Amino acid sequence: MLSLDSVTAGYTDENIINEVSLQVDKGELVTIIGPNGCGKSTLMKSIFGLTRMRGGRILFEGRDITGMRPDQLVQRGLSYVPQERNVFPALTAKENLEMGAIALDGGIEDRISLVLELFPTLAGRMEQRAGTLSGGEQKMLAVGRAMIIGPSMLLLDEPSAALSPKVMTQLFSEIQKINERGVTILMVEQNARRALAISDRGYIMEMGRNRLQGPARSLLDNPEVCRLYLGRK
Ligand SMILES: Nc1ncnc2c1ncn2[C@@H]1O[C@H](COP(=O)(O)OP(=O)(O)OP(=O)(O)O)[C@@H](O)[C@H]1O
Ligand SMILES: [Mg+2]
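The joint structure predicted for all components is written out below.
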């Protein structure tokens, strides 16, 4: 469904990611892990057309999307939740969802209902300013906004960051539910063990490059991966 072939990209003259290759098949949930600053977010931004591409090719559903703008990608069914600043704090939760629906022509109320079905907690928060929601609610709102267009694929950059263990568990189970409903997911996660536990496959990045990849289970069972990237149980 998504395929990166030797992607090199950055922001200025310096290349942040170098010849990264990756594949996500239809229906999969795939997680990227790696140390802070290794280029995970830069990779996600590159897929979504937000960096300077220096080399390589990105295919989405068989079409070359290299260098396409975010709005063109949204039209093709690709949605992205950035790591930071992913809600408009001064707008209400409902207005945030409506912003996500700008690309749709009509049917907004139906789409909002679907999102509230996924995240029932948000239903009672619709008129509240997003900036006053709890961290977990803001994350749900950010994912909800990405879901408004009915995407075929979601890019999630560290959805569980700064959440309590309980809220994290809830969010991961909602992400799993979204995947089970047929949305292909590529996510970046710091909580590597928890994320791999719900993933089909994983990729490990290091210093802007591919380091290792494999079925999530085999990464979790690999002693070297555990020692270097997963921390203690
Ligand atoms: N907008 C930007 N302009 C210039 N350099 C940037 C920009 N964003 C990130 N970088 C640099 O790119 C490198 C990789 O950053 P990136 O955010 O992709 O890492 P990451 O793996 O997502 O880290 P983290 O786990 O902390 O989120 C860092 O050296 C960072 O300083
Ligand atoms: Mg990041």
